Amino acid sequence: MELNVLYQSDDFYAPQTGVSITSLLENNKDFEEITIFLLDDQIERHNLEKLQKVVDSYGRKLSIISTRKIKDKLIELDVIPYKGSYTTYLKLFAIGDIDTSNGLLLQIDGDTIINDSLAGLFDIDMREYVCAATYDCLQNSYKSLIG
After folding, report:
1. Range 28-53 burial, b when 16+ CB lie within 10 A, else e
2. Given 19, 49, 57, 83, which is the most exposed site by the fewest CB atoms within 10 A?
3. pLDDT tens, residue by residue, 17-60
4. Quick one: which of 45, 43, 56 has its CA closest to 16?
């Protein structure tokens, strides 16, 4: 079974993304293949090397994708940055250029912790859908409680 995962990150969020990737790899050893596609929004070289080292230590693949062309397109379209960054928009424009052998791609936010295998996702029949999503599990009332 093959798992293809998409992350997007800038340098500021690279440490959190690294933790998420580690939790993904640690809890999904049951997959024959895992390929992580990382939309690189100006991540410093030393942080990219750390991410590569983590993925290599699990014997998995990391494909780093430059986002310069996507950001140029967003600027051309007069898209307003979200909290001063285009990072959150990158996945919307990159998805069509990512080729997977099984046609499936799971997008995970860099602040997500995976605490179990994702194999159960393959039991869900989504053939008639282009996209599936979930609600944010952390409601605003909880966010204010924990600061």
Report:
1. beebeebbbbbbbbebeeebbeebee
2. 83
3. 999 999 999 999 999 999 999 999 999 999 999 999 999 999 99
4. 43
Task: Provide the edge-to-edge strand list for the sheet that holds 33-41.
Answer: 61-66, 33-41, 2-10, 106-107
Q: How far apart are CA 110 and CA 138, in angstroms?
A: 15
Q: What pTM was computed for the model?
A: 0.86
What is d(CA 144, CA 146) in angstroms, rounded to the nearest whole number? 6
Contacts of 4 (CB under 8 A, 6+ apart): 34, 35, 37, 98, 100, 102, 104, 105, 106
Give whole-number Cα distances, 110 to 1, 11, 32, 107, in Å.
Answer: 23, 12, 23, 10
Q: Is 55 exposed, middle or buried (0-12, 13-18, 19+ CB in 10 A)?
A: buried
Residues 6 and 107: beta-carbon distance below 8 Å: yes
